[in-house]
Amino acid sequence: MQNPPLPSNILSILLKDRTTGKNILWATDNYRRYGAAYESDRQILSELISRDNGIIIRPRVEKSKAEQQKRVRDKAEVFTPSWVCNLQNNCVEEQWFERKEVFNIETDKSWQTITQPVTFPDDPHKTWQDYIRLNVLEITCGEAPYLSSRYDTVTGQTIDVPNRIGLLDRKLRIISENTETAEDWLIWATVALQSTYGFEWQGDNILIARENLFYDVQEHFAARFADTIPLERQESFAKIISWNIWQMDGLKFVIPNSCHIEEQKTDEVYLFEGIFDEQPKQEMCRGCKSGNRLLHNGIYCKIKDWKINKTLRFVDMLKG
User: Fold this and answer.
1) Coil, strand or helix: which one is 17?
2) Which residues have a Cβ under 8 Å from the Cβ of 12 and sit 6 or more positions away?
3) Backbone dihedral angles phi then psi of residue 158, each to the nearest 5 degrees
4) Helix (H) / strand (E) containing 228
5) Who's near 259: CB < 8 A, 6+ residues apart?
6) Which of 12, 59, 39, 27 shows the shortest CA–CA distance to 247?
7) CB 13 within 8 Å of CB 238
8) What are phi and psi of 91, to 5 degrees?
9) Is the pLDDT of residue 73 over 80?
10) Where are the domains of the chain?
11) Burial code of 267-299, b = ≥16 C-beta within 10 A, e = fewer?
């Protein structure tokens, strides 16, 4: 499924890296055939995405077998069938709702949507509002199929809004079932996006994942109100998504490939001249050398805690 072109203002937001203030990186060699601007360490610029034959960033299902295999070899990229995403998301929901078959009934490599409105446990701390506020995170998210299931990851076929199974889809369904006005819907959709996170290494995947969340909200709103979201709200949603779906090395918690060799000056004696001189000594990143995630000299990724409206390093969340 190829996403429709984004408005230029939305695309510029969805390309932002909120840690560096620049754009996300390609972080893959799949596009280097197009020239130096497409090297792995270069930023993804809006003017680079389209070429003579159209959009070059495509979902995995539309990539050639050779490209898919190369990405498996280079970055261990794998895809998860949508029915498996549903099964695993259902396991999470079963724990929270304390019952099975909340959103759908699993069938042989598929599912059947339960159309009745979702009911909540008899627990004052498990209201529909509590559910929307729950933080969810998809690690190494790729195109974010666990969060947004706009299309089948195997066939590429569009999944109708009522039958989507992503964690954000489930939040948006709950909002549609429990709000009356478009304004209330948009307020709670903001909360849903603020509580939905994911990270990924490769820049093209980051952009696709961000697009999927962005369009997902539009499509749920259209299904509920037969209308489009106001432009200023669309920009606000894009900014939240650009914070919450971020580019990161999931082992080091830094911007991909940002760790580097450091030069340290040390006093060394020239054996024959008998004089001292400052000679640079190259040192490997201490975090890479020791495996200590707190000692990397790369750029540690920042995320935003929307509940307190503050940014923090992702690695610091793991200390405790």
Assistant:
1) coil
2) 46
3) -65, 140
4) none
5) 252, 285, 287, 288, 296, 297, 298
6) 27
7) yes
8) -65, -40
9) no
10) 82-247, 260-320
11) eeeeeeeeeeeeeeeeeebebbeeeeeeebbbb
